[in-house]
């Protein structure tokens, strides 16, 4: 079969970039892949249907990978379910792609185009209709849908077919893979045809398997990645992928996706649904207009005059451009209006956009561990429970103000249901923050709450602590497997690496009851800062302090002893008597052993604040200590 | 804030250069890439690798780009 790549003139490049940008803008806003706009747009440029789908897939699967990684950080992905569904989806993709090739061989280019266009029309009519109905309901109710397990899902979860049962964390139940296989297969078939399998995958996971919406949409990204990569390999194996097309669209769409996703945080949910529904219907109309041309080429209807066919093609493209322009206009208007209103509202409240209320007077972070403004970071998971309790107790003991902060993942869903799920997620986060505030106020601690949005939680946390001049950030730690235990990784490590505030990391069941503090020292300025903080803490709340200095080699024992003695003297001058221990061995192991032997319930360490390559090469003692200890660790920043 | 802005500016410039470089390379070797793609089979590794690398580098650039202009998601305060 002849594989022809279209000529990429400057005009085509600009057009593809703009289509990519607007498609990305719309898809970032309405939460779907945008393929239902991009694929026909490429076809209108003269790209054959099969190559349009192939190239679209090649630009979508790495995006799904990046999205899945982001959502995994938020604990929203069921990897096992994603892989199980992904494998059967892969089979669906292979079958779907094979079907397309067969159609193309039997019925030619027009047959292939007709098949893709027909699937587009049917799927967009169903999904677009559902979305518009949902928007209408939302507009009148103003309440996001409550998430309930359907009767069907309850039945599926109750069926036991020996030898086929598998446990999935997302639903906390065992279900038969005989249910997952057809769902995956159908998702894959649709993806191979119009490149948006999520239209089937996400609703099926929610309504048939009973997966919570948030996890369903995040897990869909794993499926999208697995089948997208498989599909790309399949198409690329046959030589159909025009990577230039894919990358030009990607260039524009990545700008658009980010902007569209930001836009969603400024508008009402039904606006998003209306935009989604209208664009889907216009895309449907655009495809519908050219169906007679394909039918004529296939000899199914009276042949159309060349002028008529050309006119219908132009009209189809014009409708598509109108759909894109309409979507982009609504998104831009919503973004500009929403941003200016938000800023005006915050200006009236005398606050910076999206920050906690500022301190009464300008302040700098104190090198001696002042604790007046404590920022609690909570994601609402069980890992954050101890952090919440300890932050409230600390704020009460130090008479500090508590600021509870959560970060909501900016939506990057691959499903038209994505935005609705985002709203459910937002509601859950706000409910959790309200619960934290109620818990704090019950203890007599004043608590302000704030919900941030971002694609990377650590960036939001670090920036928020910076602009709100927080003295300390309190956060939980996710439990890791044995393999990962020594390397804490993730958001906590990044926050420690980048923030200027002190960070208190509280593991699950970690409690500070004043049993003792272990203060590791190594003669650096960082240890001195940690010691100053301990002095400040102990002067308010007396507790036994053990100063531990670890030499990695017996020959360095004297140096280690010297560092410890020097700091012990300084602390004695400040009125704090400490016990000194010098140990030989691996620093993190010895610090942990010392804390355990002394029954300490807090480790205070200075941070070297290594980031990037430096941290990768040198590693971080504090990171390994935090990753393995069962007691809270306070990291003091210079 | 200026520290944060400098950090963003630095990151944006680095990713912009990397991204621009990648697109330049793609067009410089356009004919070879198309020829290899057309042959298919094991050459599928080429478009696959290009897609991954571009997505990560250009994705980081675009994210930083909007951040640099202060276009950020709305933060909800209660």
Describe the overall structure.
The complex is a heterodimer of chains A (638) and B (78). Chain A has 638 residues and is α/β, with parallel strands linked by helices. Chain A folds into three domains: 10-338, no CATH class; 367-509, Rossmann fold; 511-637, 3-Layer(aba) Sandwich (Rossmann fold), CATH 3.40.50.620. Helix content of chain A is 62%, strand content 11%. Chain A has 21 helices and twelve strands. The longest helix of chain A has 63 residues, at 79-141. In chain A, 55% of the residues are buried. Mean pLDDT of chain A is 80; it is low at 481-488 and 613-619. Chain B has 78 residues and is mostly helical. Chain B contains three helices and one strand, in the order H-H-H-E. The radius of gyration of chain B is 17 Å and the shape is elongated. In chain B, 29% of the residues are buried. At the A-B interface, helix 3, helix 8, helix 9, helix 11 and helix 13 of A face helix 1, helix 2, helix 3 and strand 1 of B.
